[in-house]
């Protein structure tokens, strides 16, 4: 049971709703699309009140914003929370109103604070906890680095709940802007792994994340939008002077102007 000391920090709904109005238009300007592997979407049991942890690889500066967007798209009844570097949060304190909380994982006291705060959030009803345990930016195809131990420690301290790996990539296909591709791995229950030690949890979490990344890499290399559900449709075409010329040519020839260069995510 949560006490006032370890309850999740409040997130003003009015502020978060305003942020998502901004976020949608912001992502549309910077991505051709945001899409998720259709076969990795699910709703079984995950909408219940049990703890939910989503942990992902960390390929880009965009990851926290994409996580916030995906949480609303996939788990709209859960409030997003995510740890972030304490020094960065001090510079951008407004992020505390969006569910981010500061941690300093390079110290024993910081690791203890992370565990206490994360347990409080995970055990609170109607929350989801999003973590990037690589602890650094890493290429989406770089699977060599180990995960930081905090997530495994957290899982050993929870009585039950769901853990879901998430793979992210930002490949360029046929458009000026990149695609944002996501794939959820198979969820697994904490109580089904209750006998695991911390090292065994670490191995399980690593294997499940890398397996999900390999699955997304296969889809990304195939360069086909067919397996994906498009969650957000961004800008098409080259923009600017080049698209003005193309538009003029279409008008002169009587053809319909097509801003997109390919047939992906139309």
What would a concise description of this structure say?
With 266 residues, the chain is an alpha/beta fold. The protein has helices spanning 13-30, 63-74, 86-91, 108-123, 150-157, 198-222, 240-253; strands spanning 33-37, 52-56, 79-85, 100-103, 127-131, 162-169, 179-184, 188-189, 228-233.
Provide structural commentary.
The protein has 266 residues and is an alpha/beta fold. Helices cover 37% and strands 18% of the residues. It contains seven helices and nine strands. Helix 4 packs across helix 5 and helix 5 crosses helix 6. The radius of gyration is 20 Å and the shape is globular.
User: Major sheet, described briefly?
Assistant: 9 strands, mixed
Tell me the number of strands: 9
What amount of the residues lies in strands?
A: 15-25%
What sequence of helices (H) and strands (E) makes up the elements? HEEHEHEHEHEEEHEH
Helix-residue proportion: 25-40%
- Gross morphology: globular
From the alpha carbons, calculate the radius of gyration and give it in angstroms. 20 Å
Helical run tally: 7
Low-confidence stretches: 239-243
Indicate the structural class: alpha/beta
Q: On the 0-100 scale, what is the average pLDDT?
A: 87
Q: Separation of termini?
A: 48 Å
Keywords:
266 residues, 7 helices, nine-stranded mixed sheet, single chain, globular, alpha/beta
Topology at a glance:
Blueprint: H1 13-30, E1 33-37, E2 52-56, H2 63-74, E3 79-85, H3 86-91, E4 100-103, H4 108-123, E5 127-131, H5 150-157, E6 162-169, E7 179-184, E8 188-189, H6 198-222, E9 228-233, H7 240-253
Parallel strand pairs: 1-7, 2-5, 2-6, 3-4, 3-5
Antiparallel strand pairs: 1-9, 6-7, 6-8
Helix pairs in contact: 4-5, 5-6
